[in-house]
Here is the input.
Amino acid sequence: MKAKRIFSFFFSFLFILALAQNKKDSIPSTWKYEPNFLVGFDVLNAGLSVFSDRKLIQGFVSSKIKDNFYAIADAGFESNIYQKNGYDATASGPFMRLGTLYMLAHDPENELNGFYVGGKVAGSFYSQEYKAVPIRGFGDSDVSTAFPSSTQSSYWIEGAVGGRVQLFESPLYIEVTVQPKYLVFSTTQEEIKPMIVPGFGKSSAKFNIGFSWNIAYSF
Here is the structure.
């Protein structure tokens, strides 16, 4: 009796799905993707790289998908050093982010002008080297050890909150974005958590916040 009920439920479920699919197919689709791209470069962090140990170059490409939704891909390269609490570490490598943005409010005359929120998944594949890692020595003395360069990877999720405005009547735009980030997973060397993750920042904590100030060009 129990098996009969299970089969009845299963086939009823399939029947409902079939009806829903037929109904969906009977509704004509009016959406069609039209190629459009906004390409941007982060001038803020590139400029700060001249005056700090953190060298960060990054840019993005976004495209409107439908209504107020945009697909976005970021890519970049970062190198940095970490010298704190007895650690002396370096890391460098590329990173990439993929996600979507939603325009909360935009200019009726120009839909690219406005405020947006979004989310992304990100990953980085980088080279790191520990020149000094603190360890407990004989008699509780503080000593350090070094580890050779190794290749590691890290993955995180991040949000995006920002705004964009057209620069006069040109195809150029100014865009400012705040990026709260949460580190989900990292490979480790000798079970030592990474001190720096390119694209994420210094990762002594799993939570971080990034900023970008972009100049973008609309195609």
